Amino acid sequence: MSPAASVVTIELEQPGHGPQIDALAEAAFGPGRFAKTAYRLRRGTVPIPDLCFVALADGRLIGSVRLSPITIGGTPALLLGPLVVDPDYKNRGHGLALLKASITAARQAGHRLIILVGDAPYYARAGFRPIPRGQVRLPGPVDPDRLLALELVEGALAGATGMARPAPAEASTPLSIPCGGERGEEQNQSGESGQQRQRPDTAQNGRLGRLQPDPVAAVK
Ligand SMILES: CC(C)(COP(=O)(O)OP(=O)(O)OC[C@H]1O[C@@H](n2cnc3c(N)ncnc32)[C@H](O)[C@@H]1OP(=O)(O)O)[C@@H](O)C(=O)NCCC(=O)NCCS
User: Fold this and answer.
1) What is the best residue among 90, 145, 219 to mutate for testing ligand 1's pocket, by most ligand atoms within 8 Å of CB?
2) Are 91 and 42 in contact (CB under 8 A)?
3) CA distance 82 to 80
4) Which residues form the N-acetyltransferase domain (predicted)?
5) What are the sequence ranges of the domains in the chain?
6) What is the pTM of this model?
7) By alpha-carbon position, which residue is closest to atom 40 of ligand 1?
């Protein structure tokens, strides 16, 4: 079905989605992504299952966003990424809908701060702002203009200063279900394969619901 005619839903990532997400990331970022500083930071941890979402177009995976636990100078925070949407489906609001789903879930779960490395003009649409230069260090080079934060609790950024490090999954997530690994290597460790994971507060079938005609406007 053509992108224009597809019904797109935003749903929780399932353990079997890993290879499709990796294929999207490979197409968008290429093999060089593993050398990127954000990837290096994520490599030391596991995404939080309840905060990872996919966009499905008539059941086919066309987008993904993940949140991983980190600390910044010892203060807990989340690292967002990768965010990726199939080019055939771009500019239809799916990227921002994925962002909005993960941000809402993180806020509901009691997290206080999200950071990411990305294009400021895009992420500003979801409320991300540049982090003051020098406040947060990453384990590799990063353009300071692309180091962004979103406070889920007012004032949370002020309490996060220093080196960002991966946080151990078992210490920072209430669930031990990994999202499919970026290379698929973390898959099927949950014992949940074949089952749909559902947040208790999402609608039936784990769906957040069909996208509204203008989901971009909802997060601008
Ligand atoms: C960036 C990406 C996630 C956007 O997904 P999407 O579903 O096309 O985005 P949306 O439909 O929600 O938003 C589209 C709008 O954002 C703008 N936009 C897209 N990418 C942008 C960027 N890098 N910088 C600034 N604006 C951007 C579009 O021009 C469009 O603007 P409009 O609403 O004024 O027409 C997608 O293009 C993608 O996967 N790119 C490759 C991977 C990537 O760069 N990921 C982000 C890491 S920084």
Assistant:
1) 90
2) no
3) 7
4) 8-153
5) 3-219
6) 0.84
7) 84
